[in-house]
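Final report, Chapter 2: Outcomes

The project's central promise was a pipeline that accepts a single protein chain and returns its three-dimensional structure in a standardized token representation, suitable for archiving and comparison. That pipeline is now operational. To close this chapter, we reproduce one record exactly as it appears in the project archive, with the input sequence first and the structure output second.
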Amino acid sequence: MGKILLALIMLTALGMGAARAEDAPRLDRSDKTGALVVGDRPFLMLGGELGNSSASSLEDLDALWPTLDALHLNTVLAPVSWELIEPEEGRFDFTLVDGLLKRARTHGQRLVLLWFGSRKNGMSSYAPAWVKRDSARFPRAEDADGHKMESLSAFSKTNLAADRAAFVALMRHLAKVDAKTRTVIMAQVENEIGMIGAARDHSPLANKAYSGDVPAALIRLARESADKSSALKAAWIAHGEKKGGDWKTVFGADARGEEIFQAWAFAGYAESVAAAGKAAYALPFYMNAALIRPGKKPGDYPSAAPLPHLLDLWRAAAPSIDLFAPDIYFPNFSDWAGRYASPENPLFIPEAGHAGAATAPANAFFAFGELRAIGFSPFAINTMATPAESALADAYKALAGIASLILAHEGSDQMRGFRAPVSFDGEPDLSPQTVTLGDCRITAQFIDPWTERDRQTPANHGALVIKLAENEFLFAGAGVTFTFEPADGAGRAGVLSADQVDYENGAERTLRRLNGDETHQGRHIRLPPGAVTMQRVKLYRY
């Protein structure tokens, strides 16, 4: 009897009958969707990024949570700045990090930590004072006229070593305090890295590197790249497909060639920081990028960032970065998001415009439904004045309810997203969009037929559609109207039934049966503008 009791005690100590610690968060690329796996299950990140200084005191953190809770978030993106965790060289203070972890756990939120190390929006404003004051030891980047810039040079081994040591210290701390609860599910390495004011660094260290030979690995990448948008490939071909030589010879002395040189340096720097951090505590890592306004040249925008035309270079030079993410503040959301979404680069949008933007619901439904995004996150989420009444809260509540359905259909041809493409100048293309799901051809219209035209903004309309079973669909969104026809063109398709539904923890609840006027006597399915609704629809052929 004593042996049996002892065995039961040992089994209990090993976790038998107790909650098992979660496995590490990861990107599952086995089915080419790149799903984010958290808590051993696919996870749809409904996020919000805090303002840059919103996590700089425990008092500030305490004030945030009512807003965050009201928005139906499941993930908060929060900065961790180098200057606050290492105020003196080699002395680390993780009080703020621990306070953030405690509050996130209390409120049932996951965290993505944003490392504001050597780079924040192309500058080094979050580096510690002991780094900023010693530019002899920690050299700055310089412009073409030799003027020092407000950014640490990526060509300095000292700069790299200090940044890397601080990031490793952060990851080691997380390994100690968060490995069981797994509150932190991802980390961002640096923030919007890039050169502003010049295409490349012109400091003495950078100039020495620029006069040296191009690494053979980069020339091989230029030769083998199949990326049709690759600036690397284009510059290499334009300058004679050289097998070797210095940077000017191989890629040219113009701003485009200089950007390639700087991108290789940035990517190597980021890789060194990320690889060391991942060795200390393995999390999915990503890097974000500030995007390009039309007509701008390298240096006018943050040059050499992980932008679409440089992604082949970044992926090759920084393999410890799991994905690259766009910060989209321009109206042409679907264009930029589409450039980042690929099997090699699962789509994550850490800064999906400013919090409170009326376009956020349409962008979220499109990103999740059409581009299989793993996460969506407006910026400065804590600044929303009336979060519970916001369109974002409305959309996130609906998306949280159907998250399991979205995740179950990722990677299949049974889910599609819709929104009117918008130009950089803000003009929407309101052309109908038609897709085929199973035996049904579905056409989406972005002008609501029962609302006066001057009372609606079609650029804010968007939806997703999931095929649940044969001739059965879920429609979710706002401001989009759908019509149907058989895919083979034989006969016509009608609405057999349409039920307005909602979901709570994945469980469906029917609110009411729609018919007559609501379905235009069986001729369409209408998601009215102004508020997100969901309908389960059965079609039939006649």
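Archive annotation: Confidence is low (pLDDT under 50) at residues 1-19.
This record, like all others produced under the grant, will remain available to the consortium after the project formally closes.
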